[in-house]
Design goal:
The complex is a heterodimer of chains A (about 180) and B (about 170).
Chain A (H helix, E strand, L loop, with lengths): L2 H61 L1 H8 L8 H16 L2 E11 L6 E11 L1 H12 L5 E10 L5 E10 L6
Antiparallel strand pairs in A: 1-2, 2-4, 3-4
Chain B lengths: L3 H16 L9 H31 L1 H4 L13 H23 L8 H9 L4 H19 L4 H4 L24
Helix pairs in contact in B: 4-6
Amino acid sequence: MSPSTLKITVVSIVLFIVSTAAFVFMLIQSQQQGEQLVAQLTTLDEQRAQEESYYRLQRIAEESTADRAQLSSYFFSSESESIDFLNMVERLAPEAGVTLETDTLNLVEDAEDDKQWVEIGFSFEGSRSRVQNFLTILEELPYVTKIIRVNMVATSQSQWQSQVIMRVRVLTYDE
Amino acid sequence: MMNRTEITQFAKKIIRSQKGLQNRQLMHPKREWLIGVFVAVSIFVASITWSAIEYVKGQTVDDQTVTQTEAPAAVYRETLVEEALSIYAEKTKRLDTLLGEDTPIVFTETKNEDELNTELTPDGAEATTTQNTASSSDNEAVPEPEESDPVPSPAEDAPPVPEESVQPVTNI
């Protein structure tokens, strides 16, 4: 081989190696960029889904504010609200024609559902129909209540006495 | 001294060299040039094809590769809330009816059991309200018996009110 042929051969081989290396490098780069693109698109999609969920929750919370406030009014948010409840019952008693006394007031935890209840005991007396009427009033109070025990006895010919133990649900959320 | 085999081979070499190079051993510039161009174009086309495939794959990766993530469903049981609100609205209405009466409602044992049994069912709520309203309208013309008329002793005439007639009710 002549020197010029040899020179051209060497240059050709070098150029071939360089171009092959460049091609392999670009191949690897394009694959890596493709994987990165997929990962970024997945992240973007999850973020979009989270935003959608947030806006949906926000809309639900705004639309249901009145309903939820109304529902929460049927519970005691704390034990101290039982005072207002007692005042209401004591105000209703003379309207219903019975004399009322509050016997007990306790905060109890139900063994069945592990929920907190305010247990209140009432004693009231009056005529039989008024006592029964007031019992119905206690059942129809707009609270989440449970009547635990009812006793009704006749103390005289026209007077009846009733003792009621009822529970009102306390609803608290962890803050 | 050369033997016969060596002489024969030597003679064959000389004869072959005298014939010259075979056609396929000769250089044909056109042929070599075409082969080189063909290989180069093949490599070029293959790389273009692969690049085009990768580009299209990257362009449509959003539709094909990435699975659409669904937003986690927010659980708000609206029907349950509305049902609860309607139940308590009926309770409040019944309470207002009870408190709005001047004369108390006289319960019979049967009526008590029926009212208490149907109290919690939304379907029965209307029936309960109707019964209360009907009994209240009936009682308006009827004077209250307890205050003026002598009430028989419970042990003799009036049936005692058993405790079971007023059942504990669980309001949920």
